[in-house]
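B., you asked whether I could sanity-check this one before it goes into the benchmark set. Here's the sequence:
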Amino acid sequence: MIDVASFQVSALAFVAAFLAAGVFTILFKLIYQLVTPYNERRLIREGNVAAAITLGAALIGYILPLASALAHTVSLAEFAAWAVLAGVIQIVAFTVVRQLAMRDLSERVERGELAAAIYMASISIGVGLLNAACMTA
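And here's what the prediction gave me:
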């Protein structure tokens, strides 16, 4: 038999955590798009697959540590701190690649070059995986 009161408490906690994760994801996406020198929204609407890959991978790279933080934190305040840190790390990774490893990344993404997008995507997801793993300690 289901304990209705216990389920209601758990369901409320689920909804709060899910909404918090959604809000942080949207905020990250908006900030990430402000940091990138190209306009992902316009490029994606124009059919630029490279822009879609880099943005999508950045989101996955951010959401992976969010999921880990949700699984390993005990409060929304602690989750929020990890969410902010995960966003900073993901943006720093993009900036380092753009400044050091592939200085022409922005131009290549704007031209729709898949090789550059896949390279950036792999870094974004890899950083996200490492970030998530570090949050389990």
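One thing to flag: The two ends are 36 Å apart (CA to CA). Otherwise nothing jumped out at me.
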